[in-house]
Please model this.
Amino acid sequence: MFRGNLRKFFVAGISLFTLLGGVLSPMSQAAAPINLSIWTYGNVIDPVLIAQYKKLHPNITIVAKKSDLDGNAQALRYALPSSAVPDIAAVEISYMGEFRNYTQYLTDLSTLTPGAPSLASKYLSWRWNNMVADSGQVLGVPTDVGGLAVAYRVDLFKKAGLPTAPDAVSALWPTWEKFIETGKGYVAKQKGKAFIDIAQTIYTAVVNQGAQKYYDGSGNLVYDNNPNIQAAFNYTAAASQANLGTNVAQYSPDWNVGLNKGLYATVLAPAWMLQYIKQYAPKTTGLWNIATLPGNAGNQGGSALTIPTHAAHPQEAWDFIRWYTAPAQQQFDFINNLTFPTVTSLYTDPKVGDLKDPFFNNAPIGKIYSESVKSVQPFQLGKKDRLIDSTIGQALSRVQLGKQLPQAAWTQAMSDIRRAIN
Amino acid sequence: MAFRSSTVAPKNRGDRWGLLYVSPFFFIFGIFGLLPILFTVYVSFFHWDPLAGHNYIGLDNFRNLFTDPYFYRAVRNTFSIFLISFVPQTILALLLANFLANPHLKFKVFWRTILLVPWVTSILSVAIIFSELFGQNYGMVNVAMHYLGLSHIGIHDVNWVGQTIPSHIAISSMIIYRNLGYASLIYLASMLAIPRDLYESASLDGASKLQQFRYVTIPQLKNTLTFMLIVGTIGGLQTFLEPLTYGGVQGGDSRQFSTLALYLYEQIIINNKFGYAAAIGVAITILTVIISGVNFLVTRRISGGES
Amino acid sequence: MSPLLEWFTGPRTGKKRRKVSRTSYIALSVFAFLSIFPLYWLFVVASNSNTEISKIPPSLVPGPNFLKELKAVYAAVPLTNALVNTAVIALIVAVCQVFFCTMAGYAYAKLAFPGKSASLVAIIGTMMLPAQLGIVVLYIMMANFFHWINDFKAIVIPSMIGAFGVFWMRQIIDAQVPNELLEAAKIDGGKNFRIYRSVVVPIILPSALVLGLFSFLGTWNDFLWPSLVLNSPKRFTIQVAVNQLNGTYTVDYALKMCGAFMATLPLLVLFVFVGRRLVTGIMDGAVKG
Model:
């Protein structure tokens, strides 16, 4: 009797487990078809291009998993030492400082066929070097680059008595001081309106214009005594205190509304943001134009594609990466999504270099942004870039909200960073 | 809630059978529940980077924690959010339960069921909705307050993310939204279990409905209130998904809504400091144990030891 | 008493005395409305274009775009797969939880075994630790030891038992199954498992099913762990799928809300059928504890 009950008990338990095992086992892979997995975020991987690739290689299915920016990096950190890695991992520019030295966990693309160095000359050199390790291994290929320019509202400038032609507007602000001055003049005339959507974007713009960002050439941290960083902080704080910007968060619903209602006269826009403006404020077509950034050189955003060392299909991954970042595909991505290419030959390509959009009053988008990215200096990226960006961003928000004076905010940011880095 | 120690008189076979019934639980819980926790405690004594390696640093993580102003801010935020969510939630739940307890109420089942709808919605969806509703310039809450004329008393375009207490109110409203129905049903059930004659003798003594509520209903609900308080504090100390989905992992420009669990998570994601995160986790557990203990003793004393 | 107040509360005495005050119905209606409104709002945003909801005052009426957004959601993620995956996983977890937690709850309620008190304390202790920490370690275990990354086992197996489930069933069995009944069954010559199966289980089955419902809902809404562990879009659960609808730096609200709406809809449908039982289960659990 004991055995009888016990047996029934175990039979029930074992049946359950067998059922579970049968239902839950992953399907075994057939020999020829390959699943190429990509871990990415946002719009780095364009679905139309994926479909094109499938047509070219019917046996390869691209399987993309999207997270948010920080989530993607964190997932990679814990997955890279194991075999549970994707074939391709996208890395965003704020994380390149960290991932470019993971030579143990990311494949050196120079060892693949054809080796990465043979492609290097095609790409914007400072973007290419973003993912080259200190010891020379090439760990990633750049996809796009943000670039930076000033998108301004022609109608609002006119109302404030400012010039409206792009050249004249660009001449208003050869320096950031002049930019802020123009802003103050605008705000004085147009009560209740903001000159720029968010003052904190000035910080990113200036910081990316320097010869150094948070690290020097030898990899030492210089965030606390780099004069360009301090200048960036001070310009932004000055803009905040002069009420040039609003309190909205970028890309929030409030920000969308502001775009539609013409609450901001200018927006510091990387190329891909122009697409966003078109999508979210379609009624403002023809009201915008594009001027150069003070200091001209500029960038915001950009990504690279890497191959983890434990990837299941490194060669197929490499074939895909080379195809995806090839001139033809980057051109397609730009025409359709305004993601600015890193392939330099495209800058003089008529479809890119001469691209004009009536939404922005036929401004020479291709030309402006290619000038902007070409002038960026190749500064050193490092492991704590993202952390320092976030912390200083918090400080600037506090200044904008009037919670702290600039000096106090800066001091707190410095001590926060020091504490977090240790 | 009574923890009755109701073991049957142990039989010879009792021990063996007991173990058998509980063994699947022990097995799975041991591997997937206990083991990660033990390992986490272990990690709290290290500086741990998944890719760069780890090294033993003894109690350094805990020393840093004691001197970390953001940890204490997270503690204050967590308590603040807990109070702002728990107190109104309890009051509202009691009121709703009182209405629902009326035996002559029509459409009883409808009211009870519809109040549960928020509870089945995922926190992600709730956060998406509430972030939009609490937008500073155009969110519906501010628009409604404007139409209600609150700008005349100075409440105007509240920044529900940037300012501390407003952000706590927004996050608490998410918590209340999800839990109110569930809490109401719990109190309702307890109210329905109160013997009718207590009310009858009270009304014979001339007590009004309000007085009956205060002197009959509430005291009879002591056990339930205690239970909800303890469960509420444990849950409140772990508030994580609401602030995360509302405003991001750093809890705002001044960490104004960074809760303990969110602060922990920030260490993992942004700072890449797994060891420090583990230390925070240990601290949260100790805090929870202490507070639950205090809650339990205090409420036991209040109810005169009749729990 | 002032006529205005009387309108709300009703006359206190006399024949016209209301059984249920108007206040009650008003309050209940307000909260019923507030309970439903956010979901309605979800649908409104999902069915309007993004520029519509960026207006002041925002549109309160659904627009014509829902099917269009739904198509976009389908283009971005395999939505039906996600729904089916989630339903299957949630069901399996629910069944397992009911099965194992009932057994364990029975042991804690009615049987004696070595380590009973100590293990109870340990379980309570672990319930007090934040889940996010365990997730990292669990991930490391899954990646390096079990190799269950991207496998549903990683989601199902750790969830087959829940500390909450064990407590719930312990409490239910304690309250609903009198010792006398068990004694009587033993005297009648019943053996332990038979007693469990034919005496205990029928009594607590309704409450156990409610545990199943809780478990189902919890698994359906879980997103942190599945988003870490599942890598192929075809394997995503519904919350992970909805999370895919973000842009790099931007958010398409109509798209995201449409996804969130589709993630909630099956639960609402389920709720129509089992809502009543869920209510009863919650209320029973509250009283008999």
